[in-house]
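Morning. Coffee machine broken again, so started the prediction first thing and wrote up yesterday's gels while waiting. Chain of 113 residues, entered below exactly as on the submission form.
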Amino acid sequence: MDENESLSHSKWECKYHVVFIPKCRRRTLYKELRKHLGEVFRRLAGQKESRILEGHLMPDHVHMLISIPPKYAVSQVIGHIKGKSAIHLARVYGEQKRNFVRQHFWARGYFVW
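Came back before lunch.
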């Protein structure tokens, strides 16, 4: 089967390896957050017609292999995932932990290749 995906007038295969970190590299990606983050990332990527092919939640950073259609910029999709996941974490865990102040969970920027 052909692995390329298609839009109305093009076939594409755009995969990106993305790495981003929590603010101050806090080691908060374990425990109860780890169980929910993968599901949250997949749902948010689906909103931008993207798919997370592989992902690894390390203690202080996230590795993600994501397939993004060419009609979306990488920065647009990653910004959406980071922003909406921070809001979700603040709503769900914000009252239990004081580290999620003003919905700032992820550090600025990301690394992609």
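The mean pLDDT is 83. Going to sketch it on the whiteboard this afternoon.
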